[in-house]
Amino acid sequence: MLPVKRGFVESPEPEPERQLRADARRNRERVLAAAEQVFAESGLKGQIEEVARRAGVGVGTVCRNFPTKQALVEAVLTSMYESLVNQALVALEHPDPGAAFEQFFVALPEFQARHRALGEQMANELELPSSAQPLREQLTAALTELVTRAQASGAIRADIGPADVSMLFAGIAHATAIAGELQPVLRERYVRIVLDGMRPRDASTLPGRPLDFAQLRRMKQRRKP
Amino acid sequence: MLPVKRGFVESPEPEPERQLRADARRNRERVLAAAEQVFAESGLKGQIEEVARRAGVGVGTVCRNFPTKQALVEAVLTSMYESLVNQALVALEHPDPGAAFEQFFVALPEFQARHRALGEQMANELELPSSAQPLREQLTAALTELVTRAQASGAIRADIGPADVSMLFAGIAHATAIAGELQPVLRERYVRIVLDGMRPRDASTLPGRPLDFAQLRRMKQRRKP
DNA sequence: GCGGAAGTGGAACTGGGCTTCCGGATAAAG
DNA sequence: CTTTATCCGGAAGCCCAGTTCCACTTCCGC
């Protein structure tokens, strides 16, 4: 790998950006936008042909820009993660740790529900596009920070790990994904319930230990073979 | 076709049970058992060929007993629902309504997690086999009863509907489905948290209204077309 | 045992979705 | 306006499940 950066002897890299013809660039954008839509509403089972249709191009065009479906999915997911990381950073700016946590705890399930493909990816930890890896790490870091601060301020109980929170996020998002127009209300209801459940309670300890992202990752990887 | 059987004027019934040959009956059982396994661990995407392999028969045999994959799935799901209804009825016998509710609230996510296909079915409300319809209704009735009683006894807050509970069940099951050996502990953790969140709290009301199964069904049906 | 109906395995077929391919269209350079 | 590298559409090919089919085997009543 060795990501050598500037000047010097160029490695035979796959030339990052060949200049695209103007119309080609435009089409590429349209495809991305269409894909975002389709995967948002149909999840990862959204079809290439549908993407092409909505973008107003032929399937060939889709497949030239993104040689494989996986590539297309990755492109979309990467931009999702970007947006998500931003939301986390915004929440972190909130002065009150409890409110910061709550803000993000409301925003994430909403986001996951709005973008089904993202929800599926985060839940199942399907191969992560390498391009999203650093984003993913930023996200877990931010989430960990949110949790830690909230705990320090006494907003949520101490025996909950950051990955526990992530799991509960995913659960809510998944459960409410099927709801139609009621979705936002239901999500709010369940977020409320779970938040209440996470508040400190004296004289009670959760079974097991707080779950962190390292464990979570290990768990998921063990499921592959 | 016209499988005229014995003398008389046969009514055009789909003759419920043609006597199966001994070996055929045995094979049918094996197929069902294998299917249960496969769908339990792989969900609805489990493959016919895998079922055949585990049952030690050819795909032809599977497809003769269950002319379509859907039919096979339905057979398995029906038996799942049976078992589930039983668990609900057992819980209902518990004298303490709060404990009864809790008992089932622990058992259902575990069951859903152990049988991925069931979880997927219950979450997505895919076409329900007509054979399971009455079971399904028994289940919702029992669950409604459990919730109502628990509320009457003050074990859980009043502004939660039976279908809310069902959604939260499904969320936990889904979230923990990916965990490996940690699954049981995690499930217990999250059940605990959600249960805590459902306890009565003065001076707070959930947004929206309690969700009942009629609404839930309507919601899901609206997603089809 | 024997005959034939019932059952079996797995190869062949089918359909749906992803990917490839190429003749024709189009933007950019001269 | 001509040229030409680039890009486009969508038909054709491929692959992976599910389903069908039939020559062969197995069970069971005689």
The unreliable regions of chain A are 1-15
Q: Helix- and strand-based class of chain A?
A: mainly alpha
Q: In angstroms, what separates the terminal alpha carbons of chain A?
A: 25 Å
The total strand number of chain A stands at 0
Residue share in β-strands of chain A: under 5%
Helical coverage of chain A, percent range: 55-70%
Order of helices and strands of chain A: HHHHHHHHHH
SSE inventory with pairings:
The structure is a homodimer of 225-residue chains.
Chain A: H1 22-42, H2 48-55, H3 59-65, H4 69-93, H5 97-114, H6 116-124, H7 133-152, H8 162-177, H9 183-198, H10 213-221
Helix pairs in contact in A: 1-2, 1-4, 2-3, 4-5, 4-7, 5-6, 5-7, 5-8, 5-9, 6-8, 7-8, 8-9
The first copy, chain A, binds a DNA duplex (30 and 30 nucleotides) through residues 20-24, 27, 47-49, 52, 57-61, 63-64, 67-69.
Written description of the protein model:
The structure is a homodimer of 225-residue chains. Chain A has 225 residues and is mainly α. In chain A, 66% of the residues lie in helices and 0% in strands. The first copy, chain A, contains 10 helices and no strands. Chain A has helices at residues 22-42, 48-55, 59-65, 69-93, 97-114, 116-124, 133-152, 162-177, 183-198, 213-221. In chain A, α4 (69-93) runs antiparallel to α5, α5 (97-114) packs antiparallel against α7 and α7 crosses α8 (162-177). Chain A is elongated. Mean pLDDT of chain A is 87; it is low at 1-15. Chains A and B meet through α8, α9 and α10 of A and α8, α9 and α10 of B. The structure holds a DNA duplex (30 and 30 nucleotides).
